[in-house]
Write a structure and sequence with these properties.
heterodimer; A: about 475 residues; alpha/beta; Aconitase, domain 3; Aconitase, Domain 2; 3 domains; five-stranded parallel β-sheet; 16 helices; about 30% helix; about 15% strand; globular; B: about 200 residues; Aconitase, domain 4; seven-stranded mixed β-sheet; 7 helices; 7 strands
Chain lengths: ~475, ~200
């Protein structure tokens, strides 16, 4: 009976079974950022512990980093305090830090892959729920809380319950103007925001297999929005080609051996899954959220549900979302006016995302009264985009070209919505208040759709703007 | 382990927090994560939901509540431990819900806060009973997987391993992981990526 990649990776990293029945799991890579780590380092200090494997631990700064003025000290004294804390903690414990003066700095889930730290068959942990992103490489990557960050710092291990595996096949192909973001929003819409609890999602099928690594990262990134703590894609030649030559990837002389091991770690053809879901790529359109959970979405040519057709809890949830968003039941989603547009985040802040947005923006102007932000996911993404002249396309069109960081995805930095502004966003969460204003509103969509909304001033089918 | 870490039974007043998919951004908005400690987070629990002053956390009758009763998918979203920390510092000692998001559940366990699940109907009955009489005690019996209120008992669920950790007082995850130094070294040395993939 064949095994899944999750099963094999779990076995390879199991130290022992704990009295609680959980597995003590060794973590191959620990990524650290400034928001969820200071308390963990403090706990370490209180217990007199050391960092067990500093060479398997890497830190960067992203959540609180301003994307315009980054001079130190930061204007926000609380952000400055956090920045000083991670500088001091990483120095004290011998952990490499890619800080804002380092060209490798950026959103932690953009940085890990682009440096080649993220590798197939590896267990990865980070104090951030979007750690599932790294599953794009065939890693098993967990978002953890601060006490668990402490655990990994002190022991390089986590106490975990083994997950079930749901295989999600996306067959056929996507139509023009439909992107990885639409695929994952469609999956979450279909399976629900808690459908994945207890599962890891294994994505496969022609649509996934033909995706670039950056597209696979988008799909894995939002596994957690579907309730699944990890999501992954089996490693293949797209994975190996991406990794080859990156700074922390296996050296040239070791690379063929690495490929052999990685291929062995992929799910067997006769692997047994706890559940299988089949989706046709051709059924997926440009998808957009209208509510306050990532599962409340519709295709661009669709309408918001009618309350009369719903019952019980679902009706209550839809009602609550409509009240918050100021939308009407049965309303078309196209034509909704937007105030702010945001391209960026660990979901969609990579070079290919900026390219797709630039294709739409080129030769147009941002609509009057719309604030349009483009925030590269890392300094390396920024440099690569500038080398292609993407920043000029955006600036000529009236977009603001910013520095690398999490920016308006979660708005714990100066980039925030004001009042009840509505934002077309390439990020991952449309929760109430998520983008920094308690009454701010978010509609999630692909970067191309965000750029189209910026140009037209309202939600619009990007396919009408593509040649 | 000190006896005080044992979590066999939590007895306290309840507070219903209604609605599905209450995410951790709502429990503690991101702007309060700009801190290097967990202190003072209790003051900001559900802050943006409390703007109108109608949230249960603002009602006088719930001020001493210790058992939070929620609906489906409570604690979804961000992995921020600041969420259970904020609720714990507000005074919550146990959670009952239809279901929990996985990371939130794990974070609660590492803080010794039991999360038990019950059917939608039982949760609703419990919320209504607390609404009708907020002074009554709600007993969360982790050991026997029962919640008692208004002279009634409902069955609740909690995974075996987590129940065992809470009941025995061994929920401190670091305590469990600490004493396997040698095994960890042996395993790390065997992993292909720690030795240039040489067999």
């Amino acid at each position: 009976m064949g095994k899944t990649l999750l099963h094999k990776t779990w076995e390879a990293h199991s130290v022992r079974q704990l009295a609680s029945g959980q597995t003590q799991l060794f973590i191959g890579l620990h990524l650290v950022h400034e928001v969820t780590s200071p308390q963990a380092f403090q706990m370490l200090r209180e217990r007199g512990a050391k960092v067990r494997f500093p060479e398997r631990t890497f830190a960067t700064v992203d959540h609180i980093v301003p994307t315009d003025v980054t001079d130190r000290p930061f204007i926000d004294s609380l952000a400055e305090e956090m920045m000083s804390a991670i500088e001091q903690n990483t120095k004290e414990y011998g952990i490499p830090l890619f800080d804002i003066s380092d060209h490798r700095q950026g959103v932690v889930h953009v940085v890990g892959p682009e440096l080649g730290l993220t590798q197939p068959g590896m267990t990865i942990a980070c104090g951030d729920s979007h750690t599932s992103t790294h599953g794009a490489f065939g890693a098993i990557a967990f978002g953890i809380g601060t006490s668990q960050v402490r655990d990994v710092l002190a022991t390089q291990c986590l106490a975990m319950e083994r997950l079930k595996v749901r295989r999600i096949n996306v067959s056929g192909s996507l139509s023009n103007g439909v992107y990885a973001k639409d695929v994952i929003l469609h999956i979450i819409g279909l399976l629900g925001v808690k459908g994945g609890v207890g599962y890891g999602y294994e994505y496969g099928g022609e649509v996934i297999e033909s995706m670039s690594m950056e597209e696979r990262m988008t799909v894995c990134n939002m596994a957690i929005e579907g309730g699944a703590r990890v999501g992954y894609v089996n490693p293949d030649h797209t994975t190996f080609d991406y990794l080859q030559g990156r700074p922390y990837a296996p050296a040239e002389g070791d690379f063929d051996r690495a490929i052999s091991w990685w291929q062995n770690m992929a799910s067997d053809v006769d692997a047994v899954y706890d559940d299988v879901v089949n989706i046709q790529g051709s059924d997926i359109g440009p998808t957009i959220t209208w509510g306050i959970t990532p599962g409340q979405s519709v295709s661009i040519d669709g309408t918001i549900p009618e309350l009369g057709l719903l019952e019980g809890d679902e009706r209550k949830s839809v009602q609550e979302a409509l009240e918050y968003m100021g939308f009407n039941e049965g309303q078309s989603i196209a034509g909704t006016p937007v105030d702010v547009t945001f391209v960026g985040s660990c979901t969609n802040g990579r070079l290919s995302d900026l390219r797709e947005a630039a294709k739409v923006a080129q030769g147009h102007k941002v609509a009057n009264g719309v604030k349009a932000l483009i925030v590269p996911g890392s300094q390396q993404v920024s440099a690569a985009a500038e080398a292609e002249g993407l920043h000029e396309i955006f600036q000529e069109a009236g977009f603001e070209w910013r520095g690398a960081g999490c920016s308006m995805c979660l708005a714990m930095n100066p980039d925030k919505l004001q009042g009840d502004q509505l934002c077309a966003s390439s990020s991952n969460r449309n929760f109430k208040g998520r983008q920094g204003s308690p009454t701010g509103r978010t509609m999630l969509m692909s970067p191309a759709m965000v750029a189209a909304a910026a140009i037209s001033g309202e939600v619009i089918d990007v396919r009408t703007m593509l040649n | 382990m000190e006896k005080s870490s044992v979590r066999k039974q939590i007895v306290g007043r309840g507070v219903p927090v209604r609605g599905a998919d209450i995410d951790t951004d709502r429990i503690i908005p991101a702007r309060y994560l700009r801190t290097v400690t967990f202190e003072n987070l209790g003051d900001h629990a559900f802050e943006d939901d409390r703007v109108g002053g109608e949230h249960p956390f603002d009602e006088q009758r719930y001020q001493d509540s210790e058992v939070l009763v929620a609906n489906a998918n409570f604690g979804c979203g961000s992995s921020r431990e600041h969420a259970p920390q904020a609720l714990m510092r507000w005074g919550i000692k146990a959670f009952i819900a239809e279901s929990f998001a996985e990371i939130f559940f794990g974070n609660c366990t590492t803080l010794g806060l039991p999360c038990v699940t019950a059917t939608a109907a039982d949760v609703q009955n419990l919320q209504n009973a607390i609404d009708a009489d907020s002074r009554q005690e709600v007993t969360v019996d982790v050991e026997s997987r029962i919640v008692c209120f208004s002279g009634r008992e409902i069955d609740v669920s909690i995974p075996d391993g987590v129940r065992e950790q809470l009941v025995s007082g061994n929920w401190d995850s670091l305590g469990q992981l600490w004493d396997a130094e040698k095994e960890v070294d042996v395993l790390a040395a065997k992993l292909p990526y720690t030795k240039s993939f040489v067999a």
